């Protein structure tokens, strides 16, 4: 008799979702699905709004990474204005975008995932949270909080508030950087660098304990996509898109992000609100790709900052070709935090950043605009169309988590096949299935993330839809 | 303020003895005596309409609440401007504004410099207890420099009055009834096609919310001059009225 196991809701991720695991007649895992159960409709209700409102309107998509949407939205508006941005504006936007990535990665790793890594996936659920980390390794918890604060404080200093600043606007930014602000930010750098280096030294040996998870957590061949700069280094703001295959070969390079629709298509499935984007030339199956920190570190030739390059060399040694195991997203995230701190310092050290020319003025010169940037979780695409009055007639967003949709489903199936034995439901088993999802740090909406306290319901359902077994965790 | 030829009235506001001339309204005397009364439609220099109802006051002997902006002073009256009951009513009126149109401050271009938002904060409005109605109005961005968003309009009619009384163009008017009321230009033509509009921008300057704004700008913009310079604009309005009064 075929059965279905449902994990609902999935905890310690951003948003609402559930997992169903379908068993065949012999009780073996047949299929696994990651259902995103929320619908929001941003692309629809922004229709009719003036285009220059879009960056701050779309930033409301997410409370974790509003800056990413702000930046991608503003870039799409720049495209509508058809302006060349002043250097200072680009540099300041880059700093804010990197700060966003640092704070989000710190949230994902330290607050949500480090309990699994430090305490182990079979440790008691009441300890497997930030509170447990504080007890077990206060230094790690302290550094996590410090790094998140570092990112948030820069966002606040530049944009006036930590969440949903509206400082990035069509054509540039709204205020210039003062010498005092620059000094303040530079003053925060050494402490943050120390924190991330300590974390890398502490966490790297711990990862060795997860050999089985590395083998089975979304470890499958796929494509990887992300932005690279003109020197093929790590890039989060501008640059061109590059796609590499599972062996590490570049299969498409210098793709114009503005023309994403020529090579990316989205597939829709009836059981989830999240779409499945894929690389068009290879079709929905072969063309599925991963984005985010793991992908970004897989596609580049080097990071471009000295300390991050050293860590990156170690990362590339993990596997031949591209690093395939999604478990390594965690390590990749820490390397990106290090890169972000170094890069912010490099940008702040440049005198051009203090320029009084921080905004370009223009009226709409295009009816259409595309903005692409790297959000913490991967490539983010905003695409707007306007009418003669400058009012939005159509909008499309491809969110980083969306790109990873296919990969998340594959990852769950792989972990479920390996860890789920049909005769019993154990907590360790469902933890592992959830932990696969957590590797991708999916941001399904804006604000919800409970610290190990959300109730979780796992149901075994037979082919007649009768519940034959139930496990409730509170 | 005492002007020759006009009778002086003495009366009480909030227990304080005050005086004003017979042609003054309660709100004018309150302002002269630094007694604060919240308003959204009243603007010094423009005719009064009593549209927003936020300046309602209690007057002894009357069983109705009266709007201070259109109530003339009279001898011996006793006015209460800030009783507990009045505070509650004012918050309820504000809540009705917020429920009637799409006043979502977080994504509004006037966020931070909006009179409706400021007032809600100042009076301590914490929730909207009425269901949101949010009728959908199209944004009119046909004008070269300005945008009209009726979704953020509170129908205070400051734009209608400033255009008529100060600029003398009378481009603006109100159309429709109840929830469907909206400000329109030239018999509901798109603003950009209006023949009477002089593009002076006075309507944008006096708009208390984000209903009339400069195109391509928002409140974080340094150059969002019209709304931020409202205080500088007020003496101009008053001067214009005095000139007009002298002529008539």
Q: What is the CATH architecture annotation of the domain at 84-218 and 339-361 in chain A?
A: Orthogonal Bundle
Q: Which sheet architecture does the biggest sheet of chain A show?
A: 5 strands, antiparallel
N-C termini distance of chain B: 21 Å
Helices and strands of chain B, in order, run as EEHEEEHHEEHEEHEHH
Strand-residue proportion of chain A: 15-25%
Name of the CATH homologous superfamily of the domain at 84-218 and 339-361 in chain A = Cytochrome-c3 Hydrogenase, chain B
Main β sheet profile of chain B: 5 strands, mixed
Helicity of chain A, as a percent range: 40-55%
CATH architecture of the largest domain in chain B: 2-Layer Sandwich
Characterise this structure:
The complex is a heterodimer of chains A (474) and B (248). Chain A has 474 residues and is α+β, with helices and mostly antiparallel strands. Among the domains of chain A are: 3-38 and 406-473, no CATH class; 84-218 and 339-361, Orthogonal Bundle (Cytochrome-c3 Hydrogenase, chain B). Chain A contains 15 helices and 16 strands. In chain A, strands 3-2-1-15-16 form a five-stranded antiparallel beta sheet. In chain A, strand 1 (3-8) and strand 2 (17-23) form a beta hairpin. In chain A, helix 3 packs antiparallel against helix 4 (87-119) and helix 6 (138-159) packs antiparallel against helix 7 (179-207). Chain A is globular, with a radius of gyration of 22 Å. Residues 445-456 of chain A have low confidence and may be disordered. Chain B has 248 residues and is an alpha+beta fold. Chain B has two domains: 8-82, Ubiquitin-like (UB roll), CATH 3.10.20.740; 99-243, 2-Layer Sandwich (Alpha-Beta Plaits). Helix content of chain B is 28%, strand content 16%. Chain B has seven helices and ten strands. Chain B has helices at 26-32, 84-100, 115-123, 158-167, 202-206, 225-228, 230-247; strands spanning 8-13, 16-21, 56-59, 65-67, 78-80, 139-140, 146-149, 172-175, 182-185, 212-214. Chain B has a five-stranded mixed beta sheet, covered by helices on one side. Chain B is globular, with a radius of gyration of 19 Å. Chain B starts with 7 loop residues before the first strand and ends with a helix. The model of chain B has no long low-confidence stretch (mean pLDDT 89). Chain A binds chain B through residues 48-50, 52-53, 56-57, 60, 160, 164, 166-167, 169-170, 174-175, 363, 389-391, and chain B through 106-107, 109, 111, 138-142, 147, 192, 215-218, 220-222.
